[in-house]
Structures
1.
Amino acid sequence: MTTLWVLFIFLNFDLLLKAGHCTESGGQVLSITPNTQEQVEILKNVSTQYQTVLWKPVSPHNIKELTQVHLYVPAKSSETVRNLLQRQNIDHEVMLPNADVIIEMQMRNDSTDPRSGSTFYHRYHTLEDLSLNNRPNKKAMWIDCGIHAREWISPAFCLMFVHYSLSFYNQNPDITQILDNMDVYVMPVMNPDGYKYTWTKNRMWRKNRSSKKNTSCIGVDLNRNFDANWCTIGASPDPCEEIYCGAFPESEPESLAVANFLRSHKDSIQIYLSIHSYSQMLIIPYSCSMDEADNHSDLYEMVKQAAENIRRYYRSVYTYGPGAKTIYLAPGGSDDWAYNIGIKYSFTFELQDRGHYGFLLPPSHIQGACNEALIAVKTIALKVIEKTQTETGPRETV
Ligand code: 0X9
Ligand code: ZN
């Protein structure tokens, strides 16, 4: 019975709209077909006047003979436009008689009414709905994966992180708190050309795939291409080497794009995180020199706690510390560069394993490796949120 009622109402609503009873006075969308070049010219003219809005094609320049044009005509010019089309013998019919009614309904966003049957994914959402964090001065975290092509566990982590965030927001208190307090920018593969190459030609490829005049050697190490003691000891000016730093800092489209984005968002981005493999390490600045970061003790405490949590939950050992002292001098890295532009919580994670499979970590280890990285991300992000709140005082609840 209920179903019948619902159907009845819908059918009649549709009829009502088709008949145009509630829309005679509203704006309409017309479907118009010009048959001659002269009609095309007239239509081009109409589509730029009378406060009409051209839906299809996107621009009057693209209007052509025998091709449908969809034009929104506001109520106040409806008569003028339709008379003009009639006078010029231009074929037209009303496509949407009730455009204004629909616009009004959609913008009122009736679908947000909790009584409306549709689920989250079957409704349109306002910008406020779509952003979990509408606070002024909202903070953010950046995570990139896949700088180095052969480190396949890295893009796998970014995907898992997005899936986890979407699945467990409002279920898991940690991810809920993180997403309530910060936006997260995730770049799943920073080096797509290199990554593709590892799938198609050479599983061991590390760099990007850019080519250079005067050498047959391909690729720049993107993690030597940032402007942090660029191309000093630990990087190479030789295009044939795995740690080739490129012709100049940010010479590569991949590093330039990331650097530009981070530069323009540096006031909101608090945490920079770059995911690599392998060797199970949580690295803090600096890797480009033996210097200690200004907030070394904060950073050190964070990676220490993250490593302890990984150990406690998953029994895996992660070492931690400043890159140059923990692994090697490696200038031109994204983490040091991000740190130097003011993103004071900057990290590189080296995920599983410690040298058994190395880059060839089997798929059966993906979940475990990602869980370890996830707990480290949570530890650090929650700590940063806590510190920010104590520094600025607790925020008002919105
Ligand atoms: O050498 C690197 O770029 C990273 N190790 S990897 O085995 N994934 O290649 C370490 C990066 C540490 N951070 C910086 N070098 N800035
Ligand atoms: Zn790497």
2.
Amino acid sequence: MLREKTVVLGITGSIAAYKAAELASYLTQAGAKVETVMTEAAQRFISPLTLQSLNHRSVACDMWTPPENFDITHVSLAQIADVVLIAPATANIIAKLAHGLADDLLSSVVLATQAPVIVAPAMNSIMYLNQATQENLALLKKRGYTIVEPEVGRLACNEQGQGRLAALDTIVSAIDRVTGCVEDMAGLKVVVTAGGTREAFDPVRFIGNRSSGKMGYALAESAMQRGAEVTLITTTELKALSGVQVRYVENAEQMLEEVKKATEDAAVLVMAAAVADYRPKKVAQSKIKKTKDTLLLELERTPDILSEIKGKLLRIGFAAETDDLVHNAKRKLSGKKLDLIVANDVSAQGSGFGADSNKVILITRDGKEIELPLMSKYEVSNKIWDWVINIK
Ligand code: PMT
């Protein structure tokens, strides 16, 4: 599929630079033309000769070596690229790209290109989770860059956390997707819900939960990148997702109405939202005053959205559990007559509400369990879509 595509591979100064050699070799064998650009720091981890030998092409390392054919190096690389892939991407290059700096060859190529850009970060987890890095990545995503999130695991600094360069096949699938080589969800209409509902009991207060919406957004983004037509029904506004139809709601009743409309002609519904099971029976018209020592709120059941949506579509639920994970998830799977339930261990470290990663077991209607390691919510999403594609 990559035949005749030109991949400009940017390598920056991370210990994961050695993995870029395997990536370059794989891409070359898959038929891509790989043009490598290495930063000065990258050359301290791996020699340009390694890449040159694997790709049979010279490696561009600086702005000032006179070009052989008088083409300006950064502009010509930017123009011939079908995709620019930076793997591994350090916090430094991410910050430079976010702020439009062009003080070396790689950052200049990125600024001068109109090709899609993929950034695969690799670094210490604290650096990765630092607000500065996260905000820079959010900015890049907003501008349409594809971020292939790093994996969770043991890092070179001997710490455990998110920061390991994504697996080779995850990076290659991202290239396939952005170059239009694989749109394995094209023609599939999917509806995803995200965030926690808020059930008001007076004009200023509500009963809510800790769902951030990250899981639902990751599902929507990954499906969109795989070519699906996506509607996201959400209570939270996390980031702009170009190409996704977004509907904002607040409570369970509104979410039900939007899900009903969106699923009329959809093939898949994934309910990642944490929907309140109960809501206040009465909503006061004005703010409740502090007059007594205790305040009793009478609650009533909310509609069960998953159970109300009938028809031919695939229905996938999540089960957020702190104990008896599989048992409780299976109960919900059969109770709501679902096709798949994502049993979500919300007590595991780095998993569940508000986290960027998640630890889940996919349980199918016929009882098959697929246990996944702790991975980013984006990767969990792709595993769920892989399952959908397999049975469709
Ligand atoms: O948003 P994040 O911070 O990223 O966190 C993600 C998450 C932990 C919220 C998510 O991964 C998750 O587990 N979502 C489901 C949470 C939940 O409320 O589960 P539940 O066991 O209460 O409900 C089971 C299923 O029924 C869910 O798919 C839920 O959306 C659905 N439901 C629940 C109540 C209701 N009235 N109608 C429903 O359709």
3.
Amino acid sequence: MERLIVSVSGVRGTVGGTLGPQVARDFGCALAQMLGSGRTVVIGRDTRSSGPMIRDAVASGLLACGVNVIDLGVASTPGIALMTVRLKADGGVVITASHNPIEYNGIKFLQPNGVCLTAAQAARLKGIWESRRFAEADARRRGVESSNDRTHAEHVEAVCAVVDVKAVAGKRFKVVLDSINGAGGLVTPMLMGRLSCQVVHINAEPTGQFAHKPEPVEENLAQLCQAVRDCGAHVGFGQDPDADRLVIVDETGRFIGEEYTLALAAAFVLRHRKGKLATNLATSRMIDDVAAAAGCTVVRAPTGEANVVEAMLREGCFFGGEGNGGVIEPRVVPVRNSLVGIAYVLQYMAETNRTVGELVARIPRYVLVKTKFPCAAEAVAPVIAAARGHFASRPGARFNDSDGLRVDFDEGWVGVRGSNTEPIMRIFAEARDERTASALVAEVRNLADPIIAGKT
Ligand code: MG
């Protein structure tokens, strides 16, 4: 049986396997223990059919240990994060396994600012959970549960507050939206309505019966691409099940690649505001080029949404995100938000009078080659050390070792890191052409293979 994954991003497991009501209740108790009796937590879930069971179990643990619970029902991850802030809660809980298949569910824990726990907080929560020593409250001090149905409305208002609604609405854009029967299906049409879009909404039912594999990558988006062509839409948008990530299809029905979501959104915001941006080490160099064209710079953080947000807050970045389709606008809430991405891309189209395809063509193009292969955990550090030594003498090489190793050269960059959750190593490289990128990957792979062989 697969093991339960307990990481800085929360808990993830298989329903009826590693993640059942007992585990979920224990995590509710552990969170209550960490926050203290008398505190308040908001809780919401994506559309997975296992959601109500996990939600009830977590809430039961929280209430039993004296923490009040505000239930938001089915909502997007950014919507739940927003309500955690707006309701001045002491924490938030999101029941979602994001882009993982239907067999999975997960529990994500949020700080009062809507951002997931820091590594230190996550480690503390895990320690309390492992101890299984929970202080249940007596009848008078049990938590109180209430519900709140304002999430979608407040989320749409918050996004509209940072967008030129009139400029977008005037265009009457025709949009195909694929919500994969996930949490975005409820709130996103409300935003589209405010922006006066003509929406063809596919996989719109919040049933949790995912219409295709949920990871928002090209091979899973054929239906969206076809629908854009069939209706002659201006643009197609695809969300993941908890609606924090967004991918885009251009006016010809072509999937433009998940890396372009952040690049386009960044190009848009830099027309209006200047300042530092933040992203992770694995994200395409396009954002550096877009920022440089506006006289701005990009801070690179270790992989993981929490790390990007932490870097944004620390370095005073006004905007950021991840190359996996995650756009982070702190003026709404500092987490990845597909609704912000949609609104920004539509306003970018509206105010430039350009199509998505034309806007994409204005951004310097790169080829990103990603590989992963089995690698024992103890081989990771020696491979990284070997790569560092190997590239040290190369002219102009710039090293970042805050998360594995990333080496930037003028012609591209190469990254190497071990997985936190599996015995896997990832090597990725980006350059102007595929040959250069693949050669960089092969160069590191040639260093890695004998080291990995020696450790097995
Ligand atoms: Mg997600």
4.
Amino acid sequence: MIDSDKKVIALCGGVGGAKLALGLSRVLSPGQLTIVVNTGDDFDHFGLPICPDLDTVMYTLGGVSNKTQGWGREGESWHAFETLKELGAETWFQLGDKDLAVHLQRRALLDRGFSLSAATSSLCSHFGIAHTVIPMSDNRVSTIIETAEGDLPFQHYFVREQCRPTITGYRFDGIESAAPSPGFTRALEDKDLAAIIICPSNPFVSVSPVIELPGVRDSIRASGVPVIAVSPIVGGKAIKGPAAKMFAELNLPVSNQGVADFYGDLLHTLVVDQGDRDEPLNTGCQVHYCNTVMKTLDEKVALARECLHQSLLFTPGGSAKGNSH
Ligand code: FO1
């Protein structure tokens, strides 16, 4: 097992990322684990700051997430949303009453001068979350999906258009002038950092915004710690969301090979579902096969352990010891 004084950073997006973050939170103490969450999906709606991936991680670690839907809360009521409908308001983005309260309070905190990190910390404390959940940046970074029909803010593409338009490209507006959040920078520079886990989130729109932040790639390399990514593609399909469709439309192989090629030399190990063991895969990194489909809490914890074990196979210099094929 990983020493109790060793630290781990988990980079994650929405639903898939939140599952592994939950598994890691069951294995690592609050002082050991920093969960860095994508904020490229964020947008203002009805004047409220919506942070879907931060909220999905917060609801998941807080034990209140809607398990079937993946996002939003369990036991929601929709009185405000139904009334919005009666008022002829935009209702393509569903907002439950409890979820709305989170957006209202985040708005209030930000208006009082809280950074997004501080607002997130305050909200997470009220969900009884002891582990550190932080936004990748306190600056606005907006994922824009470029399509044949024009540019779409992420939620318009993902929810309003239900990922129908063909993607021709994507970009992260504001990323050039954004900085990693203070907690993210601190975690990357921590001398006890022992592993970076890239959760099975969409590599393009959930993981890239985090690693493309100015200085992050260099800090990851300079840390010399093992970077372990869990492939979000299983059997040529994404477990959830548009990742597979995006790979195909961006003319990348919809496979673990496509994921390995995308992450390139950033990775020390790619964790691939055991069902894909016979798939041809040529990577410059180690490949570890295990169950990566997380339906139960035990499976989330087991995958967390697998990833942490992979990180222990590496000497500080980053060279692999032993063959984990
Ligand atoms: N996803 C949907 O497909 N439809 C929705 O109406 C919707 C509402 C919503 C509200 C709050 C929230 O935090 C997430 C919500 N999501 C919805 C999911 C969200 O679009 C995705 O979870 C992320 O942006 C992608 O990971």
